[in-house]
Specification:
The structure is a single chain. By secondary structure, this protein is of the alpha/beta class. It folds into two domains: about 190 residues, Rossmann fold (3-Layer(aba) Sandwich), CATH 3.40.50.620; about 130 residues, 3-Layer(aba) Sandwich (Rossmann fold). It is elongated, with a radius of gyration of 22 Å.
Amino acid sequence: MHHPTDNGKVPAPVGRVWSVVEHQGGELSPVSFELLAEARALADMLQGGGEVCALVLSSEQYCSAESHIDTLAKHGADQVLLACHPALGDYASEPHIEVLTDLCHALSPEIILLASSLDGQDIAARLSLRTGGSLISDCVRLTVNTDGVLEGSKPVLDDHLYAELHCERRPQVATLRPGACEAKPLHTYQKPEVQRIEPVLDSHSGAVSVGEFLPATARNLSILEAERVVAGGAGIKNPHGVRLLEALAESLGACSAASRVLVDLGLMPRDKQVGLSGVVVKPKLYLALGISGAAYHLAGMSESEIIIAVNTDPAAEIFKVADFAAIGDLFEVVPALLERLANQQAPQEASQELLLEAG
């Protein structure tokens, strides 16, 4: 085992439930607040209670930001453990896994929560293997039984059933699907206990490094972070329909998304899928094109602030959750919208124009 810090000392004991914080470009990811809320709930279920530790792996610049410490406390962290090293700035697998593995061996947490994101899934699988722990992944619900065993549920078989999972070894590692739980800022909270360590990494940990970080644009932004989403369903039909969808999304400064059927047809990538088997989104604007409104899709977007639906079927289930409805052929409606929005100077103006038209 490697020493977790440069002076050979291990950190003082920290909380029984760890929440691994995701961040990018100096900003905390929204899913980190959801993880803290779930960690807080699980810690309260443990026999005798427990404390929540927010674990931040990052570079010197990020670790020195006091505002982030307060934000983590506000969302449920009793303790904050900062692991600071230049190699931990942008995500690269090996240095992050090495540091987490060493910390687990030194401090023996009972539960470790990560987001079911690309980074989180990568960390969780490797961490559970190296520590000899258990992993339950992509869960939408987590709980702890009377024996302290972590249990979870995840949708399976086209979202018709739920698989009930449980951990058999410690540490108990779980990934939680973004949007599956609600971030819950505390009304009152105390300043957290903060520990800072400077890990020592093996030379091979830097074998792979991040060459450049490219900020997301509306076109490639994660649908979890987008304020505006334009999604298509079976009514999109073909590549021409996808091009119309993406053109409208670009005009609105929105992120394109899809229901499961478009993903299964190979017309949209899996990371664009909204629904129980995809991701749960809560944007300010959700524009549904040719989406009928199956229950598993509605569960993934029904909490959007404003929903506009376009469908040829007046009895489509999507209209039951829509704030504005357009009964018509999307291949006629979308070109008309694009023409109307062409004169707008900015995506924000285009979005406002769209809402005015819908009204």
